[in-house]
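re: the backbone from monday

yeah here it is again, tokenized this time
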């Protein structure tokens, strides 16, 4: 069986600002029912790429196809198939969620009724509230509802959870997963490692406008040169030379009262370590296994620290 045609296909996209190539020959595809993540530090080109895909900025070159339609030559038809939540949503202070949804619905031939969207995104109690009185989380839920007015096939989310508290972030994550369950395609921009790993089926790591690596979270982790680390604390300080002599241990370093053991086979090393401690009458106080992560790959490819929500 042939794979389904991509809902979104970006090919050789270039966007420059003067001498800066914000997006540098980027190509990617998003399948139906897939959440595709753009992961990168601030300034990596994530927002510029999404703005070009939405028609908010004109790319210098490249093509953007939504359900096979060229976003440049068929912009009206494409805009009826997409929805977007940008980093910030601003509406008139006095407008209410119900009024905003009805206003946005007037732009489309077959919109989803505002009552249905208010219920879906938990805004029924705030349907008549002025926008200026809404909390940050309520504004983001309204932004998602507005992006959903035209029942889009492809959703663009640009840093949708930046600055939100953990509870609201979890609610938005659940909404994004529901989009995927409905067969919609999502292009998600984020600089949060944990968010990308938790939500995305595939991830592209952007660095200075280019894709440094792409794949599933597991495929990206496999690219890391970082070894599995076993951090162990014992009743008394073990002999470093004896630890390094154990089968499977590549190196042993001491810091802050603990030893960090590097290995390619954590399972067998733990068995050897426990046997060694028992033979030397030493107590195992604590043991943690730290496997390579997307954060390790991110740092290796970009040279920048990862962000936490």
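seq for it, each position gets an aa:
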């Amino acid at each position: 069986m042939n794979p389904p045609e991509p809902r979104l296909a970006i090919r050789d996209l270039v966007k420059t600002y003067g001498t800066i190539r914000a997006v540098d020959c980027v190509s990617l595809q998003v399948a139906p029912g897939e959440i595709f993540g753009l992961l990168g530090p601030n300034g990596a080109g994530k927002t510029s790429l999404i703005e070009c895909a939405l028609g908010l900025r004109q790319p210098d070159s490249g093509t953007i196809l939504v359900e096979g339609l060229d976003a440049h030559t068929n912009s009206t038809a494409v805009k009826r198939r997409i929805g977007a939540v940008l980093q910030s949503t601003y509406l008139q202070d006095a407008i209410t969620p119900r009024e905003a949804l009805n206003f946005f619905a007037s732009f489309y031939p077959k919109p989803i009724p505002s009552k249905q969207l208010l219920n879906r995104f938990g805004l029924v109690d705030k349907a008549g509230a002025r926008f200026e009185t809404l909390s940050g989380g309520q504004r983001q839920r309204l932004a998602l509802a507005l992006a959903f007015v035209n029942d889009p096939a492809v959703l663009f989310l640009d840093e949708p959870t930046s600055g939100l508290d953990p509870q609201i972030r979890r609610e938005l994550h659940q909404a994004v997963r529901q989009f995927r369950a409905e067969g919609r395609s999502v292009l998600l921009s984020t600089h949060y490692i944990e968010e990308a790993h938790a939500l995305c089926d595939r991830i592209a790591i952007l660095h200075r406008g280019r894709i440094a690596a792409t794949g599933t979270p597991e495929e990206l982790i496999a690219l890391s040169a970082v070894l599995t680390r076993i951090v162990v604390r014992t009743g008394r300080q073990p002999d470093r030379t004896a630890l390094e002599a154990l089968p499977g241990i590549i190196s042993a370093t001491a810091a802050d009262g603990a030893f960090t053991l590097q290995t390619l086979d954590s399972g067998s090393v733990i068995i050897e370590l426990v046997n060694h401690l028992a033979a030397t009458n030493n107590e195992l106080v604590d043991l943690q296994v730290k496997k390579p992560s997307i954060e390790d790959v991110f740092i290796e490819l970009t040279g920048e620290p990862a962000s936490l929500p």
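The two ends are 40 Å apart (CA to CA). Residues 237 and 257 are 8 Å apart (CA to CA).
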